[in-house]
Amino acid sequence: MGRSDALGLERRTRRRSPGRILLVTLIVVAAGILAWRVAVLCMLGWHFGSGFDERRFDKLERQIEHRQAAFAKADARMRQLAAAHPKAEVITWIQPRICVRQPGRREECDPTTARDKATYDARWGTDVILHQSHDEDRVFFRFYGNDPPIYTLMHTPADTDADAYADPRGFRTTRSLGSGWTLLGPIPDPGQDSKQWQYD
At CB < 8 A and 24+ separation, what contacts does 171-176 make? Predict the structure, then answer.
């Protein structure tokens, strides 16, 4: 075997050494795992809040408009509850129960009456109706649904500047439905979302 043949064999052996193959394999696997994690995190971020679905926004608007009287009745009932608990930090109403949290105390929940259940069910689609002390003149209807992001219907006693309210709280978009009713787009930032909703 000549010298050049020996050098070629040595180079091929060095190229295919187990240590080098293992190192390349580890780099490829690590890059694949990193790319997969980035893709998953991006999809979760889009799916759970940062995305905005114009078609779903339109669909919610149509369904709210078809049930305006039912939403108004639920709003009036929540305002009655707020008047009955003037010191409450937060009042949440879901179909089976209404919960009130007073400052420095644990949340107390009572089963809803048949009348409250009927009022709740009539307005369709809302997962929770909410009143909180730091937004005392507003009632919120939050739509989680099976397809996030979460949209929120807000009602104020009179027409207000919804954008001036929504922008500093991180809502992506607003749409006025008239007479103090506004559909609010999602809050993409989870920290800001938790700060806004005292019941979280």
Answer: 172/52, 173/52, 173/57, 175/57, 175/61
